[in-house]
UniProtKB/TrEMBL annotation:
Highest classification ranks of the organism: Eukaryota, Fungi, Dikarya, Basidiomycota, Agaricomycotina
Active-site residues per Swiss-Prot or TrEMBL entry: H481 (proton donor), H528 (proton acceptor)
SUPFAM superfamilies: FAD-linked reductases, C-terminal domain, FAD/NAD(P)-binding domain
Transmembrane segments: none
Cofactor dependency: FAD
Protein name listed in UniProt: Alcohol oxidase
Species annotation: Gymnopus androsaceus JB14
Alphabetical keyword list: FAD, Flavoprotein, Signal
Residues bound to FAD: V118
Domain Glucose-methanol-choline oxidoreductase N-terminal: 39-294
Top-rank lineage group of the source organism: Eukaryota
All copies of domain Glucose-methanol-choline oxidoreductase C-terminal, residue ranges: 399-537
Protein family: Belongs to the GMC oxidoreductase family.
Signal peptide: 1-21
Length: 568
């Protein structure tokens, strides 16, 4: 059985007890503070962006940070810790349980949109893939923002900073699977992603590494970091004006729909890290430019009785696997959902390019991705009660479709309207169709003879272009990589023409407000998005530190704290 090469985040190196006064389960536990004891920064959201920023800013013991998280503190729940349990997290208490509007490109279907609702955010419920993105992805960010600091070469220190390579759970020799130099030829994290290679994942010692375990648990003892869970930000409040710009240094929040409202001021900044759905939900006049990765699957029966399907069809075997994991952190449950990833491009002479501009960032960025797993996976068909299978995911990773997030209600607790507009362009459906054809050619290779038996229904009936397109529209789902809803652009240009954020992630036309999460991406990378978010947050932390090392705070500002049942 194929195993998965694994990477953990650097901050995982030491885990400490949560028995600390800095993690509060409710707003009521938060100590009352006065004007001489304020927070420098209030970070909204404890996912990849918020956890990283909270950690890095509190490295300075004189900087006080409050981290607000809407979800619970249950990031060490068994279903979260066990890597192979990742698929069962969607639709649970750890998920915001968003759904999209009906998608014309998906034959009018609405689909679930999973986002993490727990400390650690979506890093606690994702499939843990470790992908930096391509050289061209990062260089395009630098070009569109006019900031070379976002380029591939400039971002190398941050890419290396978050990594602590660890061996897979079986401790085999990974020579040829992983290039520790930094990765080099044959490793998709080298900057040139094109090819097929072993999956790297945020897994260490057989269990998931998420933003909470990597960035927050090791620093829970810091007296300058307060974390409050089960607390939802409801509004970002204007606190004044400077040089003709509105100042936003206050956050309104509550612990329930009918609970009392609280307001806290930050002396320096409010940092929005609530994710690509909730961050635009808190900001006016944003939410356009939504980008995501659609996917579908094809499965084959196999000539084997030893596949991951057995853990789902045989209750006794499943119990044995869980006992093995509990005892030794080894076995099949240490695997993420995919063993190998492939990053591939359409041929340069593909007919779609006759009338359509290539939406990818460049030749090192894939148009589509493969994920291989020795089990049955479908987003439209029930899991078979018997049999052994092999599945290939086909994911569109350089989409040209654009969607949006808009308000559904004035209530901050009402889910926003999510319109990804999946498969709404000719390029996107063409590429998905060609990816299906390519994966069939790949699986027809002689190397699979005798093991791969036959393609399963209903995909097996889709043979013509029209039939393949119909299959895709009937079965397509999402990789849950929603991004780009509050994008960076060039500094000083109107937000309507060049992104809502400056290249330093500050919100254009405001003072004291910054965004550090995947909503800030100007383009979705041809990669899984958790690691680019960590990398973005690492640079953001240095940008923020640089600002306040150089500048002193205006003495005229006041930072009173209000604990009240209404906002004044």
């Amino acid at each position: 059985m194929l195993k998965t090469a694994q990477l953990a985040l650097l901050a995982l190196s030491s885990l400490v007890s949560l028995a600390s006064g800095t993690l509060y389960e409710s707003v009521e536990q938060l100590p009352t503070r006065n004007v001489s004891d304020y927070y420098d920064f209030i970070v909204v959201g404890g996912g990849a962006g918020g956890s990283a920023v909270a950690n890095r800013l509190t490295e300075d013991p004189s900087t006080k940070v409050l981290l607000l998280e809407a979800g619970s503190s249950d990031f060490d729940n068994l279903d979260i810790e066990v890597p192979s349990f990742a698929p069962r997290l969607t639709g649970t208490q750890f998920d915001w349980n968003f759904t999209t509007l009906n998608q014309a490109g998906l034959n009018g279907r609405s689909i679930d949109y999973a986002r993490g609702f727990v400390l650690g955010g979506s890093t606690a419920i994702n499939i843990m893939a470790y992908c930096r993105g391509s050289k061209d992805d990062w260089d395009r960010w630098a070009k569109v923002t006019g900031d070379e600091g976002w380029s591939w070469e400039s971002m190398q220190p941050y890419m290396r900073k978050i990594e602590n390579p660890t061996p897979p759970a079986d401790h085999r020799n990974t020579t040829g699977e992983f290039n520790p130099s930094i990765h080099g030829v044959g490793d998709y994290n080298s900057g040139d992603t094109i090819g097929i290679g072993w999956t790297q994942a945020t897994i260490s010692n057989g269990q998931r590494v998420n933003a909470a375990t990597a960035y927050l648990v090791p620093v829970m003892s810091r007296s300058n970091l307060d974390i409050v869970v089960n607390t939802q930000a409801t509004k970002i409040l204007k606190t004044g004006s400077e040089d003709g710009k509105a100042v936003f240094r206050a956050v309104q929040f509550t612990d329930s729909v009918n609970g009392p409202l609280y307001t806290l001021n930050a002396s320096k900044e409010v940092i929005l890290s609530a994710g690509a759905i909730k961050t635009p939900h808190l900001l006016p006049d944003v939410g356009q430019n939504l980008q995501d990765h659609p996917l579908t699957t094809i499965s084959w029966t196999v000539n084997s009785t030893n596949t991951l399907d057995n853990g789902r069809t045989n209750a006794t075997f499943a119990a044995e696997l869980l006992q093995q994991w509990n005892d030794t952190r080894t076995g099949d449950l240490t695997l993420g959902p995919g063993n190998q990833l492939g990053w591939l491009r359409l041929p340069d002479n593909a007919t779609i390019f006759r009338n359509t501009t290539d939406p990818s960032a460049g030749p090192t960025s894939a148009h589509y991705e493969y994920i291989a797993t020795d089990s049955f996976v479908s987003f439209s068909e029930a899991f078979p009660s018997t049999g052994n299978f092999f599945t290939m995911f086909s994911n569109l990773v350089s989409p040209s479709s654009r969607g949006n997030i808009s308000l559904n209600s004035t209530s901050p607790f009402a889910h926003p309207l999510i319109q990804p507009n999946m498969l709404s362009t000719e390029f996107d459906i063409f590429t998905m169709r060609e990816a299906i054809k390519a994966v069939r050619r790949f699986m027809a290779a002689q190397a699979w003879s005798g093991w791969i038996l036959e393609e399963t229904s209903p995909s097996s009936a889709a043979q013509t272009d029209a039939e393949i397109e119909a299959y895709i529209r009937d079965t397509c789902f999402t990789v849950n990589h929603v991004t780009c809803t509050v994008p960076m652009g060039k500094d000083g240009e109107a937000s309507s023409g060049s992104g809502a954020l400056n290249s330093d992630l500050t919100v254009k036309g405001t003072v004291g407000l910054r965004v550090v999460d995947a909503s800030a991406f100007p383009f979705i990378p041809a990669a899984h998005t958790q690691v680019p978010t960590y990398i973005l947050a690492e640079r953001a932390s240095d940008i923020i530190k640089g600002v306040y090392q150089r500048e002193s705070l205006p003495e005229s500002l006041s930072f009173a704290v209000a604990h009240s049942s209404e906002v004044k």
